[in-house]
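Lab notes, practical 5.
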Amino acid sequence: MSIFPTKILLATDGSEEAELALLTAVDLADRTDSELHVIHVGGDYHPGPEIALSPALLEETLRELEREAREVLEEQVKKIEEAGVIVAEAHLKMGGRPDEQIVELAEELGVGLIAMGSRGLGGIRRALMGSVSDSVVRHAHCPVLVVRRRTQEEEARSIFPTKILLTTDGSEEANLAALTAIDIANKTSSELHVVHVGFAPVPIGAEVAPVAAISRLQDGLNEEATRFLDEQVKQIEAAGGTVAQAHLGLTGRPDEEIVELAEEIGAGLIAMGSRGLGGIRRALMGSVSDSVVRHAYCPVLVVRPEKDSRPYLEDSISTARRPRREGAEQERSFWDILLGPYPSEREVKVLEYIIHRLGDGAHLEEIVQEEYVRRYASPEEVSDILENPRLVEGARKKIEEDFEELSRSLRTRRKGK
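Output from the prediction step:
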């Protein structure tokens, strides 16, 4: 099963960044035989008193705004068709929030991909389209391709074929991103790279462990992350992908490592999963995807699960936590209740660290200020932890019970021998 051909919705405001998104969407639609739709949302108009009190003047002003918006849309359609791709339908929306209009139309059309520009970060120069793309990434129920300004050399040529950097953490969202990246790589003859960012031991203030202990911990983390990455590569290849190179990152922030690696290998596209908003804990991978979209110097494809994607996803790429998800509505585990329906390896690691420090006698308020927690947990997650100390204490007790049960089992086995 392939996501292509599909319907691609290009959201445009006529800006330079939107022009780059147009070129990328045209290239992808052409190479995947996909149907291309275009949407432009005209500005929401708030008339001053002199116009609001004159119905005739207000009507004339609104007509002029619509005319200008239609000109922008028609100009974009013309550029697409000059590039050799036929626009299935052009959609003009007037007023309202652009992000809401884009997401609603995408659902109405049943598109498989949204393409749009983003102007990134930058003080007063951060334009509206940047915030619109952030919101669309978080709320759309299909993959979103966000394109930022490229170099003149890159703008002069087609984005595909290229190097695609796929990020993975083993979550459902990352696995779905893998399927999408595999499909794009195969359809565009692009080179597929895979990266997994593991953990690094972080010394805590004055309580610095001996160098030998840190070294042993690092070796263990390296081995665990290497095994995980190898398994992900096998699953990707079993799903029909060809991995050119697998990359393992173990130091620094995941978003920084992803952006730096993309630049290092000259990636033309980053593909990653995002868990969006919601739940008792916003998963860290969501905040990582937000940061990568804002700082990467190449287009970023952010993928979230569609409502009917899970059966195919689980058949194509296995998930480490499938037993936890099956029957979740009937019987949710403690981890599901605490972390939401799809807890990540990163979330569990943070919680395990907190529980370990509690066992050392540290106070919860102090622990969440330590570097390890601040590095791997978002401010929202820290707030949730502080607001739900009983859940953390419950987790500690649950782990103690699990160890006691394991110890009893081992003693029973020894006696049996």
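Observations recorded by the TA: Residues 55-82 form the longest helix (28 residues). Residues 322-416 form one domain.
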